[in-house]
Amino acid sequence: xxxxxxxxxxxxxxxxxxxxxxxxxxxxxxxxxxxxxxxxxxxxxxxxxxxxxxxxxxxxxxxxxxxxxxxxxxxxxxxxxxxxxxxxxxxxxxxxxxxxxxxxxxxxxxxxxxxxxxxxxxxxxxxxxxxxxxxxxxxxxxxxxxxxxxxxxxxxxxxxxxxxxxxxxxxxxxxxxxxxxxxxxxxxxxxxxxxxxxxxxxxxxxxxxxxxxxxxxxxxxxxxxxxxxxxxxxxxxxxxxxxxxxxxxxxxxxxxxxxxxxxxxxxxxxxxxxxxxxxxxxxxxxxxxxxxxxxxxxxxxxxxxxxxxxxxxxxxxxxxxxxxxxxxxxxxxxxxxxxxxxxxxxxxxxxxxxxxxxxxxxxxxxxxxxxxxxxxxxxxxxxxxxxxxxxxxxxxxxxxxxxxxxxxxxxxxxxxxxxxxxxxxxxxxxxxxxxxx
Length: 437
Ligand SMILES: [Zn+2]
What we know:
437 residues; six-stranded mixed sheet
């Protein structure tokens, strides 16, 4: 085993993980969990499979701590989105290594980090690592769909398996060059995914006589336009404020925030623009099922993302005012996420120390995510400090963003190795902290 470098070990494990197809739905993550259990067992790390249904297991492994310090979970998910082989240059489940890159669905999102986390804990175990608090590796099912088989279920049904003070998950790690300076992004919070539906009522009738009916689709049109134009009053949360301070050298007023960031780099402005308030995007519409029947009902489904600590009730009041007192029903479809972790923590210090080591002069900046990750379930259940950080400095962030959930997804082996190094570093730093409190 000593002949294999961590880099080779992570590469081979990732290739094997990609070859186990875990497109969700249906997921079938148990096969990935079993592969990981076998790998970890070979290196003396015991793991447990937790499954709501047999074919969708979550794997949790740990190096037990002395009980004197905080617990850290290296969190990941083993399911992926679908892939259409016709769009790909290589078979999406080949796991082929080509010119220093491992190809396949999940390479970036996020089997690469699954493999790196597994190699981090396995290699530490081999070295006889004794952390103050448990070092936990959790490779969960069902992140991409969130139908209740993954971490949400684990937190409810087996909380002791994943209870932890600190967590490293997916979400960020990009290396950005803005205004000639280098920044590594660490996600520390996320918006609440809070889609809603409006139902606009009218009266049906024969489509050949428009005036005798009350067309719900036509009534919905100006409401859809109003939603499309919606702009929240901008505000700077702690993450955006810290990002702006680092990147622009000051804290502009909320109205000036996007402009000030754009003056440094267009990308910086694009990055913070959706993070200053609630966003709404109408995405789906259902009206008449018959071409010749004027609809009595039009349903519009709207993607909506709300800032942490804002409530649906506050946003609903705003939206109802925007929509006017039209004849409509308003219904929230769900509300997941919208949690944040503090920035002044030992885990943050560990991220900073790592970045200072790999690239002196580079700075770590926090980010609020517009999307949703499993970090939310841990923050919500245990108040865990959860960050999204998997450093990537070889692949350009623009390319990585294009490949995720898309064709020709692949990861640089250099970045995979860097990820293993970071996760080991975080485990050692948190593992040497004195107390959980
Ligand atoms: Zn993911």
